[in-house]
Write a structure and sequence with these properties.
With 322 residues, the protein is an alpha/beta fold. The chain has 11 helices and 9 strands. The strands form 2 sheets. Strands 1-9-8-2-5-3-4 form a 7-stranded mixed sheet, with helices on both faces. It has a two-stranded antiparallel ribbon with strand order 6-7. The radius of gyration is 19 Å and the shape is globular.
């Protein structure tokens, strides 16, 4: 069992992040996305020096989840940091993008019928994914822990509830409010949105679902929620996979799959795992983030790096047909 201590003294790093984000927020040109891609390609090296522990944990998670050797794990870390930095810069200009500019940054392939439940992993630029979906399917509802009151932060596993992190969270919520998206933090309200004919999008690996079960995932035992699949079955709506991947030119493409079987084990086997294994660098940053906040999370993504046996109270997954 691995003990990972969350950073106790991180305000210098947070201060650098705050200064950089506030500076870049007004300086980055949304009409020239190639500048953001260039800055990300250069800046991730600086970020690696700023947060070496995150890079180490990312490499370790790449080995544990994808069987990567030392050299491959290093390449996954570089891609994850480059992609994460580009995503953060794109997030800063996202509220200022026109419809035409958004189309130049991200392409969408596939279609949806309303109502539908769209599930995606925390892989790649998720903010860009939901913004692209909202532009094409107005009235999109996104289930997210964003906007929860401070008392709920520990329940979703946030790291470092410092003043600077709170400031960054408030600014992000302000940016979110400018997007054509309905944000929903109450899982019990999702059935109502579907009944009213909306497309609802949610991350299947989000830490805000009320209940979790133990299930094999990426060669390990994970805690994931069965609720989105039960929701799709109860509402009688299609369950659709959505992924966003970065292309060679560093633009992004959103892919919408065909309606999937609304069962957790089938979803992991047929939809989630093949994509994540094909693009490990897109998921490695989320794996490292979950690892870093495991001690604060009541249901860490992977129990094998938790420091106690709290996760044992969650049941083993049983398919509905069993």
């Amino acid at each position: 069992m691995i003990h990972v201590r969350p950073p106790a003294f991180q305000w210098p790093r947070d201060l650098v992040r705050l200064v950089l984000e506030e500076t870049l927020r007004g300086a980055l040109p949304p009409e020239e996305p190639e500048i953001l891609r260039f800055l990300a390609g250069v800046g991730w090296r600086f970020e690696q020096r700023l947060a070496p522990e995150r890079a180490r944990l990312t490499a370790d998670e790449a080995r544990r989840c994808f069987g990567a050797n030392v050299r491959t794990a290093g390449a996954i870390v570089r891609e994850a940091q480059d992609l994460a930095l580009q995503a953060r810069m794109e997030r800063l200009v996202l509220p200022r993008l026109s419809a035409a500019q958004l189309d130049a940054v991200v392409r969408v392939e596939g279609t949806l019928t309303a109502p539908s439940l769209v599930l995606y992993p925390h892989a790649g630029n998720v903010d860009l994914l939901v913004a692209a979906l909202a532009q094409r399917w107005p009235g999109l509802v996104v289930f997210s822990a964003r906007g929860l009151p401070p008392a709920s932060v520990g329940a979703v596993g946030a790291v470092g509830p410092t003043r600077l992190n709170s400031r960054l969270a408030r600014r992000r919520n302000e940016d979110d409010a400018r997007l054509p998206i309905r944000w929903e933090a109450d899982a019990s309200a999702l059935a109502g949105w579907l009944a009213r004919g909306h497309v609802v999008a949610a991350a299947f690996d989000d830490r805000a679902w009320p209940t979790y079960v133990r299930v094999p995932f990426l060669g390990r035992e994970a805690l994931l929620s069965p609720e989105p699949y039960a929701l799709a079955r109860a509402a009688g709506v299609p369950l659709v996979e959505a992924t966003i991947r970065r292309e060679r030119d560093k633009s992004s493409r959103v892919l919408l799959g065909e309606p999937a079987t609304p069962e957790l084990d089938a979803w992991l086997r047929d939809a989630a795992t093949p994509f994540l294994r094909a693009y490990p660098g897109h998921y490695a940053a989320w794996l490292a983030e979950c690892r870093m906040r495991a001690n604060l999370d009541d249901h860490p993504l992977f129990p094998d790096y938790a420091t106690d046996a709290r996760w044992l109270r969650w049941p083993v997954y049983t398919p509905p047909s069993a």
